[in-house]
Specification:
CATH topology of the largest domain: Aspartate Aminotransferase, domain 2
CATH architecture of the largest domain: 3-Layer(aba) Sandwich
CATH class of the largest domain: Alpha Beta
Strand content: 5-15%
Bound molecules: pyridoxal-5'-phosphate
Length: 426
């Protein structure tokens, strides 16, 4: 990195001559994203097959037009003359990254240099859970409800460094979850040796949304009596709340917020971020990868280097821009509205059990349910898929569930059609 910085001292002015983005990349898509047709117009920006009901966009997104246009633009430019865009004299790559951080920062309401750009939630989890420095006697406290990506990262860390990882069960029946119960379980479980608390905001095994902000307050309370070397570092896997909940980073009261931007956020596939509480690179964290960024602060030290699919990374800003244009509060309201509707319809069917909590206090964009008395939900999920309703069935901490994620590209009629179809098989 040093020689790259030296190069920069001679800073070339090439950047000024880089082509401006074409008009096609203008923020505002052709159809208005406000008023009564807002959600219908939004749908027009996505090339998803209309004859299929897509309830699984939480796995990975389709690219909306502004994002795809940006990818196409950069791809064409990179194909024409890749070296020009990698020219360190011009800081071209860094400028594009800075633009992405600016948009993400606007969304999260933080400073751009708090944000490292990653390739996925999994990559971010590996970099934080893997890179935090713990003394030999210190532990990571987490839950039994974490995703495979976090769990595997913990296993790898245990293997590599022998770090102790303790897992809490925060609830047995997701539909009965209570904030008091969650907070008191965590409160009682924290020990003097607890150095890291790791939680998932919205769980992809049950649909539960944890009161992350309140958990963060609890952590702060414990930290009042701790010095810098023993204070609890609060880490959040936020991927299924990001692009759903009307959030500001500061409200979560965490040290690190990790998320992919290629699910609910509609960013390019293969993108994500980590937002840290400060811009300064902390002493308690060691990077996993060599960066190709400026190497100056959290954002640029923790952004993994290597030459990437830059057309994707540089187009992440378009997704934040789109979400801000839709309005964070409206996005949250619409996704909750659809899920409330879906849940009520599930409750109307006596053969089904709603697994995700009913209240929006404890749920976000998931409506998970099961066919009662059936260990194996696959036949029902497969039947729906064969009939062009994209769902899936998993068996995790909450037992067997059929997973649906009604989001901004869905509507009430699709929910009715999916449940009418399922009823034929019950
Ligand atoms: C809670 C949770 N964390 C992490 C991941 C992994 O996400 P990514 O594909 O961005 O690595 C998933 C996958 O959907 C998930 O459900």
């Amino acid at each position: 990195m040093t020689h790259r910085r030296t190069f920069l001292k001679h800073a070339g002015l090439l950047a000024a001559s880089l082509p401006l983005l074409p008009q096609a990349l203008a923020a505002n898509p052709a159809l208005p994203l406000n008023g009564a047709d807002k959600w219908r117009n939004l749908r027009q920006l996505f090339p998803q097959t209309p004859e299929v009901i897509h309830f699984s966009n939480f796995l990975i997104t389709t690219h909306p037009k502004p994002v795809q246009d940006s990818i196409d633009h950069y791809r064409a430019e990179l194909d024409r003359n890749p070296a020009k865009w990698m020219d360190w004299h011009s800081q071209s790559e860094w400028k594009r990254e800075a633009e992405v951080r600016d948009w993400a920062a606007r969304y999260l309401e933080v400073k751009p240099r708090q944000i490292a750009l990653t390739g996925s939630t999994t990559e971010g989890l590996g970099m934080i859970y893997g890179g935090l420095q713990l003394a030999a006697h210190q532990e990571i406290l987490t839950t039994e409800h974490e995703h495979y990506s976090a769990n595997t990262t913990f296993d790898l860390r245990e293997k590599r460094q022998g770090t102790k990882v303790r897992k809490l069960r925060l609830f047995d029946d997701p539909w009965n979850i209570s904030t008091d119960q969650v907070l008191s379980t965590i409160d009682q479980a924290i020990r003097p040796e607890t150095r890291v608390l790791g939680m998932t905001w919205v769980h992809s095994g049950s649909g539960v949304k944890l009161p992350i902000g309140q958990i963060g307050e609890l952590v702060r309370k414990h930290n009042r009596n701790r010095d810098e070397q023993s204070r609890i570092i609060f880490v959040v896997d936020g991927v299924h709340g990001f692009g759903v909940e009307n959030m500001r980073f500061a409200e979560l009261n965490c040290d690190y917020f990790i998320a992919g931007t290629h699910k609910w956020m509609f960013g390019p596939r293969g993108t994500g971020l980590i937002c840290a509480a400060t811009e300064k690179m902390p002493a308690h964290l060691v990077p996993t990868f060599a960066t190709f960024s400026e190497d100056e602060d959290f954002a640029t030290i923790m952004t993994p280097g290597g030459y990437h699919s830059f057309e994707h990374r540089w187009s992440v800003g378009k997704a934040f821009e789109l979400h801000l244009q839709l309005g964070k509060a409206d996005v949250q309201a619409r996704i909750h509205q659809l899920n409330d509707y879906f849940k009520q319809r599930v409750l109307d069917l006596p053969q089904l059990q709603l697994v995700t909590p009913l209240s929006s206090e404890h749920s976000a964009g998931f409506t998970f349910f099961r066919v009662k008395k059936q260990e194996d939900q696959d036949p029902y999920a497969n039947y729906l898929i064969e009939n062009k309703v994209m769902v899936d069935a998993v068996y995790r901490d909450a037992g067997p569930v059929i997973r649906t994620a009604p989001g901004l590209l869905n509507n009430e009629q699709e929910i009715d059609r999916a449940l009418a179809l399922l009823q034929k098989k019950l």
